[in-house]
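SEQUENCE AND FOLD
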Amino acid sequence: MLWIIAAVLSAFFAGITSILAKCGIKKTDSDLATALRTVVVLIFSWIMVFVVGSQATIAEIQPGSLVFLILSGLATGASWICYFKALSIGDINKVVPIDKSSTILTVFLAIICFGETSNLVIKLIATVILAVGIFLMVEKKQVAARANGRGWMLYAVLSAVFAALTSILAKMGIEGVESNLGTAIRTAVVLLMAWAIVLLRGKQKGLRKPDKRELLFISLSGLATGASWLFYYYAIGHGLVSVVVPIDKLSILVTVAFSFIVFKEKLSRKATLGLLLMVIGTLLMAFFK
């Protein structure tokens, strides 16, 4: 059951990632921050590859697995770009719940693609509970009052869609591939995609006078992401995607707690009920796997 523990650790580090990233994109452009974070994650990932010695198996990766790893990396890059854009213009407690809705799509895709139909009724009930919880956490009146309107919501939804595709594609590509090596390959793809966007949009100019404090938070966010990924892809490589993903999404508890401490973002009663339902739905999936 080590994959369950890995999924929990993945959730913890993912929760910290959102807070650290928010601290690092107050002045820094979100696309540039994503590219800088990816450099840190890539270095972290390859260090782990050499620590476990899996670099020797690169030549053994099947072409099919490599294709899915690359596609997973592209989906991850798209998800990150949308997610951090949403974070830069919206509240953490609004953006994160929508991003976590990727769980719903992932569960359905796992059932269709991998035949994970054990306790299907419970999983479907839990998915409905999750959906209701997400709906309650996104408070429309407060969102409408913001100067940025609903722009953040579109980016958050796109982030969720790409995140769901990431999990499924990674599961297809990681079969027969050591999880640390798979993570490192995917990260290399994300890096190329992130910097390509930065260069195409001319945002590399932000490197001339970077905010050192924000650069520190971006780097720490990258380390947290790297740790989260390593545990996450170990978990989906050894366990059930429809169980690992919901557990990983419990990172919202960490995010909400720290967003209150750091940014003073409080939850209303409605949003608190939504958070509770999200946790209940997630635990149902985890225990009735």
